[in-house]
C-alpha cells in the first residue's frame, strides 16, 4: 500500500462510522450533516427494473466498458450476455466476477457515456448509489465519476472505492490525471472506517455532492467528509460502477463467483 506522509484527523460520527482523513485540504467536522434533498430534483435514475446496456453504445443508458480504453485491473470487463456479467432480479442489479475455465477473470462495468460522449453527464449536483458489496481479498468494487472531455486532463471522483483486503474500510478519492501519461497531477484520499461486515451484509447509500467550492461525501446520506473542489472537477462528469479485481492486491484467494448488488443509481441537480 502507498505510504502517505500526511496528517490524519479522526471523526466519530453518529452512525458509528469513523472517518480517517488523509491530506491537508480536507475539512473535518464534529456533528454530522444529514443530506436534505428538498432543493434538488432527479436528473438521472436507474432503479434496475430492467437493464439497458450495450458493449459500446450508442442509444443505451449504459455501456459495458470505459469510454477511453475499455478495461483495467485483473478482470476483463465483459460485453453483456444472458446471465453474465449483469442480471436483474426484483429491481436489483447483480454484477458478477467469475474465474473462467481458461483461468482468466471476467467481470462487469457500467458507464453512463459511450466513447463519443453520448449519454448522461452533469456538472455539479448530488450522485448516489445504493449497493451491497462482495467480500473477499482481491475484490475492488467502485462507484465513481469522470470528467474526460478536457484535452489535457481527466478528473475523477471515487465516491466509493473498496479493497477487499480491508473489510472494515472504504475510500473516497479525488484524482486529476494528465493525459500525457505522466502520472497523477493531484490526489486527495479519504479513508472511511465502518464496522466489519457491514459493507457485505447490508445495503448502504454512497453519495457525493459536487459543488463549485466543495465536494462532500455521504454514507447513508450523512456527511462524512468535505474537501475543496479542484477546478478540473468543475466540469460535467459521467457515472461509472464496476466490480473490478486487483488494484495491486493478489487475487489468488478471490472467491469465484463474487457478486455486487446495486439497488439504484441516481443523480440530482439543484
Topology readout:
Layout: E1 8-12, E2 18-22, E3 41-46, E4 53-54, E5 62-63, E6 75-77, E7 86-89, E8 92-99, E9 105-107, E10 109-111, E11 125-132, E12 139-147, E13 153-161, E14 169-178, E15 186-193, H1 198-201, E16 204-210, E17 214-219, E18 222-228, E19 238-245, E20 258-269
Parallel strand pairs: 4-5, 6-9
Antiparallel strand pairs: 1-2, 2-15, 3-20, 7-8, 8-9, 8-20, 10-19, 11-16, 11-20, 12-13, 12-19, 13-14, 14-15, 16-17, 17-18
Provide keyphrases for this structure.
270 residues, mainly beta, Jelly Rolls, 10-stranded mixed beta sheet, 1 helix, 20 strands, disordered N terminus
Could you walk me through the main structural features you see in this protein, from its secondary elements to its overall organization?
The protein is an all-beta fold and 270 residues long. It has a single domain (53-208, 237-269), classed as Jelly Rolls, CATH 2.60.120.200. Helix content is 1%, strand content 46%. It has one helix at 198-201, and strands at 8-12, 18-22, 41-46, 53-54, 62-63, 75-77, 86-89, 92-99, 105-107, 109-111, 125-132, 139-147, 153-161, 169-178, 186-193, 204-210, 214-219, 222-228, 238-245, 258-269. Strands 3, 6, 7, 8, 9, 11, 16, 17, 18 and 20 form a 10-stranded mixed β-sheet that branches. The chain has an 8-stranded antiparallel β-sheet with strand order 1-2-15-14-13-12-19-10, with no helix packed on it. A hairpin with a 2-residue loop joins strand 7 and strand 8.
Amino acid at each position: 500500500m502507498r505510504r502517505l506522509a500526511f496528517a490524519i484527523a479522526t471523526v466519530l460520527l453518529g452512525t458509528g462510522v469513523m472517518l480517517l482523513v488523509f491530506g491537508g485540504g480536507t475539512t473535518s467536522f464534529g456533528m454530522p450533516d444529514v443530506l436534505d434533498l428538498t432543493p434538488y430534483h432527479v436528473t438521472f435514475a436507474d432503479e434496475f427494473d430492467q437493464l439497458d446496456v450495450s458493449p459500446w453504445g450508442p442509444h443505451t443508458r449504459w455501456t459495458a466498458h470505459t469510454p477511453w480504453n475499455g478495461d483495467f485491473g485483473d478482470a476483463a470487463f465483459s460485453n453483456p450476455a444472458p446471465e453474465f456479467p449483469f442480471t436483474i432480479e426484483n429491481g436489483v442489479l447483480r454484477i458478477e466476477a467469475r474465474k473462467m475455465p481458461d483461468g482468466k477473470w471476467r467481470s462487469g462495468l457500467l458507464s453512463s457515456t459511450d466513447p463519443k460522449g453520448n449519454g448522461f453527464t452533469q456538472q455539479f449536483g448530488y450522485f448516489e448509489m445504493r449497493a451491497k458489496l462482495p467480500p473477499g481479498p482481491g475484490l475492488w468494487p467502485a462507484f465513481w465519476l469522470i470528467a474526460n472531455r478536457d484535452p489535457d486532463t481527466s478528473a475523477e471522483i471515487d465516491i466509493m472505492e473498496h479493497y477487499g483486503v480491508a473489510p472494515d474500510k472504504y475510500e473516497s478519492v479525488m484524482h486529476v490525471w494528465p493525459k500525457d501519461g505522466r502520472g497523477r497531477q493531484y490526489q486527495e484520499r479519504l479513508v472511511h472506517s465502518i464496522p466489519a461486515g457491514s459493507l457485505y451484509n447490508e445495503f448502504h447509500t454512497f453519495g457525493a455532492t459536487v459543488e463549485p467550492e466543495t465536494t462532500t461525501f455521504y454514507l447513508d446520506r450523512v456527511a462524512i467528509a468535505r474537501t475543496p473542489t479542484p477546478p478540473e472537477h468543475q466540469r460535467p462528469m459521467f457515472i461509472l460502477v464496476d466490480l473490478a479485481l486487483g488494484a495491486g492486491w493478489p487475487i489468488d484467494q478471490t472467491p469465484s463467483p463474487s457478486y455486487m448488488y446495486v439497488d439504484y443509481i441516481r443523480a440530482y441537480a439543484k
